[in-house]
Specification:
- The chain has about 325 residues and is of the alpha/beta class.
- The chain is built from 14 helices and 5 strands.
- Strands 3-2-1-4-5 form a 5-stranded mixed beta sheet.
- Strand 2 and strand 3 form a beta hairpin.
Length: about 325
């Protein structure tokens, strides 16, 4: 690590030195080799190799050359380190639990565009994978025609990821993923009381999830749309920051499916560590152009569910917003 100044280190490994050293304290024991014989790779070099892999867009040979190990050894290191980082998820990826945390989130979301009661902005993004093979492989082919995982996240106003679901194949619709999630069950059970998630039209409008009007018919609905679009912007921005910081998520993964899932969750943990370090703008990429982030949001009809927070807001809140 001493070979690079702070700027060069961030360019190569996508995180600050202090963040990497703090992370190492959490996972060092788990990723340490069982023996020091045969030039075993040190925990810090394993971590740096993995970060270099995340930064180079899935080139295991390049990452392995960084510390002089074979492609197969690099693959094992990336797997083990990614799993170790992903296990930190309960510590660094979490929804609000206390009344104080809920109030603080609602206040910070309100300060964006005066949208009330919001505790998260929800959406999905596709991470390209190779065909997993087997009889279920086609389930992973998305509407754009390539294989992917459809990854659901919930973002905070500060772009932190508060929840991630990275197990669903690319053919699954956003609403299906949401209704099968722990977050859905907690919302329905009243865990966050009358709090709301803001979403796009890929989701059903309910008493706990609100979406824009597809065809606003008056000034109140226009005002509502303007407010909700700005309020849900953090989740879109978080994807941009996440994929610029870790190009492996933009270029796609050729690893085994289980390892790819661990890589996705690990990158979300690292993203939050960077946010905690007030590092919201990833450094420039060296000789690399990222593919465009494709838009998957579709305007679909959803069967009405009990309750309608959007209707309530446009009747009881937005008409009186000065």
């Amino acid at each position: 690590m001493l070979a690079w100044d702070d700027h060069d280190f961030r360019v190569r490994f996508r995180l600050g030195k202090n963040v990497v050293l703090n992370l190492l304290e959490y996972i060092e024991d788990e990723i340490a080799s069982q023996t020091i014989r045969n030039n075993a790779v040190s925990p810090i070099n394993k971590l740096l190799l993995t970060l270099r892999f995340y930064a180079t867009g899935n080139f295991l040979i390049t990452a392995g050359d960084f510390i002089g190990v074979s492609k197969s050894t690099a693959c094992l290191i990336v797997r083990d380190v990614s799993v170790a980082i992903a296990k930190l998820r309960p510590i660094f990826i979490r929804m609000p639990k206390t009344e104080s945390e809920i109030r603080d989130l609602q206040l910070h979301f309100y300060q964006i565009a005066r949208f009330p009661r919001t505790i998260g902005a929800i959406d999905c993004t596709h991470i390209k994978i190779q065909s997993p093979g087997g009889p279920d492989a086609e389930y992973f082919r998305n509407r754009k025609g390539y294989f992917s995982l459809n990854v659901q996240t919930i973002a905070s106003p500060g772009l932190k990821i508060m929840d991630v679901v990275a197990r669903w194949p690319g053919s699954c619709h956003d609403q299906t993923i949401f209704k099968k999630s722990r977050i859905y069950n907690k919302l329905v059970s009243g865990y966050w009381k009358n709090s709301l998630l803001v979403a796009d039209s890929g989701y059903a409008n309910t008493q706990y999830v609100v979406t824009p009007y597809l065809n606003p018919s008056n000034d109140i609905e226009e005002l509502y749309n303007e407010s909700i679009i700005r309020t849900r912007n953090p989740v879109e921005r978080s994807y941009g920051v996440l994929k610029r910081r870790f190009p492996v998520l933009s270029f796609g993964s050729r690893l085994k499916l289980e390892t790819t899932q661990a890589v996705i969750v690990a990158c979300c943990v690292l993203h939050n560590l960077a946010c905690d370090d007030n590092d919201l703008e990833p450094p420039e990429l060296l000789n690399m152009d990222l593919p465009l982030n494709e838009e998957f949001s579709l305007r679909e009809h959803h069967e009405p569910e009990v309750g309608n927070a959007r209707k309530q807001l446009t009747e009881e809140y937005f008409p009186f917003l000065n």
